[in-house]
Amino acid sequence: MGAHVSKQVERRKSIQTEKKVLTEMKQSNGCEFPCSDYHPSDRKNWMSGLNPDKVQINQIVWPGTHDSATNKIGFPFVTRPFAQCQSLSIYQQLVTGARVLDIRVQEDRQVCHGILVSYSVDVVIEDVKKFLSETQSEVIILEIRTEFGHDDPPDFDKYLEDQLGEYLIPQDDQVFGKKISELLPKRVICVWKPRKSPQPKAGGLLWNAGHLKDNWIDTDLPSTKFESNIKHLGEQQPVTARKFFYRVENTVTPQADNPILCVKPVTDRIHPYARVFISQCFSRGIADRLQIFSTDFIDEDFVDACAGLTNARAEGKA
Question: For residues 210-225, b (16+ Cβ closer than 10 Å) or e, as one string?
């Protein structure tokens, strides 16, 4: 018992130390970067506001949500706090400005996070289609994967093609160098990541797992995650040289050996430092690598930061 208590005391010290590191980094180095003061007049249409005839797909800094469809997961006040990573619906996230969605499904097409279940993936698709029907030039990356420990939903590739076919941008490496306007009216890059079923093939309507990559580190230590993100991002080629999307997630996750297991208070350890991360990318010479930037509990400031850097790239300022 004494050893366990001692371990927890040390864990709390480590967390406080790491939070202090990020706080001091923000105070000493700031969180400014080219166009960091940019604020879209209409976040629902922020890509349109940057001129689709000018912005290339590989210039976009895509604001994304981690475990996107968890706003209704589990039971309220009972299991939900342990798995909820977003409080907004899919539609509300898109209206706020999110452009990358991270959806996990199980065999029956229910959205899930581990063993906890949310709503049917139909709800996600309907929200996406509602948003697309209300906008004209907003492009979405929709990543759907089979959750770990589950089998693929039967015929799920056909389901996605049937539901989103009119909007789907076919898998094509040339897309990365094209401007938004060159892809319209197609507006969804759908990345389907099955566990056992065949991967989508080149030229098809769905994109395969090799087109959306990341280096996930499972930790609740904010500075550890921050520096890991910097390290792995620095190992990537610049966005102009890549034929895949690379994601960095400004998140930390609860750990079983720590008494704080609810997502919100844990992820809040790193959530306020998204702009610091972008600023550090410039300071360390790797800003040209940043592409998809995701978060738990997305907010307007996070979207503004990504839109601002996208604007800077489109204007030749970054």
Answer: ebbebeebebbbbbbb
Residue 213's DSSP bridge partners are 246
pLDDT tens profile 44-99: 999 999 999 999 999 999 999 999 999 999 999 899 999 999 999 999 999 999 99
Per-residue pLDDT, 3:
58
**Rounded-to-integer distance, Cα 137 and Cα 47, Å:** 7
DSSP H stretches of helix in 198-262: 222-234
Contact 111, 120 (CB under 8 A): yes
Residue 8 lies in a domain: no
pLDDT above 60 for 178: yes
> In which domain, by residue range, is 205 found?
13-313
Number of domains in the chain: 1
Alpha helices in the chain (DSSP H): 2-29, 46-49, 90-96, 121-134, 156-164, 180-183, 222-234, 263-267, 274-283, 300-314
pTM value > 0.90: yes
Q: Is 318 among the domain residues?
A: no
Q: Strand 212-214 and strand 100-105: pairing?
A: unpaired
Q: Establish if 284 belongs to a structural domain.
A: yes
The mean pLDDT value of the chain amounts to 96
CATH no. for residue 83?
3.20.20.190
In a domain, residue 225? The reply is yes
